[in-house]
Amino acid sequence: MSETSDYLHMDLLRFTTAGSVDDGKSTLIGRLLYDTKTIFEDQLAAVERASLERGDHYVDLALLTDGLRAEREQGITIDVAYRYFATPRRKFIIADTPGHVQYTRNMVTGASTANLALLLVDARKGILEQTCRHSFIASLLGIKHLIICVNKMDLVGYREDVFDKAVSDFKDFASRLDIADLQFIPISALHGDNVVEKSANMPWYRGMPLIYALETVYVGSDYNHVDPRFPVQWVVRPQSNEFHDFRGYAGRVSGGVFKKGDEVLLLPSGFTTRIRSIHFHDREIEEAFSPMSVTVTLENELDLSRGDMIAKPKNMPKVLQDLELMVCWFSESTQLRPRGKYTLRHTTREVKCLVKDVRYKVDINTLHKIEDDREVRLNDIARIGIRTSSPLFVDTYERNRMTGSVILIDDLTNATVAAGMILQK
């Protein structure tokens, strides 16, 4: 593809961190920020002072990321923290998510836009239930790349057999998951072994350090470039300036490739026309693809508004009112109501929906179905059936994360109560 494609797909990596409590997620992120020289001197000085006040005999880099006072006091991460850093090869956005089971919704939120999941395992404890739970959530959310960092290798004498056992145990569990790219790296986040530089303490490890793995993982193929989908977000009306002298349709390409002159199908009207031009920022381009945000103009003046979709006549999304969803429940104050009515948001379209039934819940530690308890509460993951008040233009989540995801909103409080993934019927 073009240089724009290389920029979008290769220069930015979104990844999420997860793991059990005290596995060292925040320390690892602090180490990445410190060793890539992404923190300021005054930040480091503040962390050094805080470490001394706590009685630590070392600089606790976890304090760089545990920014909330409650997090510092408890020494744990309780909310999703987004961090940014860069190397000469790539820019990164990190979602540091909590390890506790009661913060499952926070992990789902942080991982929903991630290309890669970084899962930490304490070398002394090995694979735990929380490790399996986080792996399942990563797989459920369609994350294609998973790096298992076996941390605190310094506390087990940098022994190869300890690392090998963690790898073997995890592979046994991971055989039930849909993870396309799986890597294992032994590290010590506290001392920096195999984080940015290769560790002299583990000569038996012949793989790459973590930062190199993050810089080189290829995520361009994670986007759907097969099924053209363009949900309309905004109608650009003609203005009295050189950039807005046309009527266009702005939005984010959610799949496939659109080119100037392509025949396209407008949903829900079913009319066909051709693309007259595609505008990216302040210039006209020949093609657009996921996940670019562009403005499209059409050859014919046809009715198209927010929530409608542009597709291709020979590659249409499914047009459905009855959906099967796997949902994660976010609300602390309410539980999912069978026959309950909610507002459903899908891409840029909002409709009313009715929960027909709860099929089952999922035990996210064992992956077993729970069919004798169908009350869906905070942090529960469940399969449900719904019916919408008007048709949606959807793909399965497995095929397209953008057109295969929804959120449910409580009409009384306007709070987002669940995130859902569209499944095959």
Explained architecture:
The chain has 425 residues and is an alpha+beta fold. It has three domains: 3-222, P-loop containing nucleotide triphosphate hydrolases (Rossmann fold, 3-Layer(aba) Sandwich); 230-311, Translation factors (Elongation Factor Tu (Ef-tu), domain 3, Beta Barrel), CATH 2.40.30.10; 318-423, Translation factors (Elongation Factor Tu (Ef-tu), domain 3, Beta Barrel). Helices cover 19% and strands 34% of the residues. The chain has helices spanning 3-10, 25-35, 41-53, 69-74, 104-111, 129-140, 160-174, 210-216, and strands at residues 12-19, 81-86, 91-96, 116-122, 145-151, 181-186, 230-231, 234-236, 248-252, 257-259, 263-267, 272-280, 283-285, 287-289, 293-298, 309-311, 318-329, 341-346, 349-362, 369-370, 381-394, 405-409, 416-423. The strands form four sheets. Strands 7, 8, 9, 11, 12, 13, 15 and 16 form an eight-stranded antiparallel beta sheet that branches. A six-stranded mixed beta sheet has the order 2-3-1-4-5-6, sandwiched between helices. β18 (341-346) and β19 (349-362) form a beta hairpin. The longest helix is centred in the middle third of the chain and has 15 residues, at 160-174. It is globular.
Topology:
Layout: H1 3-10, E1 12-19, H2 25-35, H3 41-53, H4 69-74, E2 81-86, E3 91-96, H5 104-111, E4 116-122, H6 129-140, E5 145-151, H7 160-174, E6 181-186, H8 210-216, E7 230-231, E8 234-236, E9 248-252, E10 257-259, E11 263-267, E12 272-280, E13 283-285, E14 287-289, E15 293-298, E16 309-311, E17 318-329, E18 341-346, E19 349-362, E20 369-370, E21 381-394, E22 405-409, E23 416-423
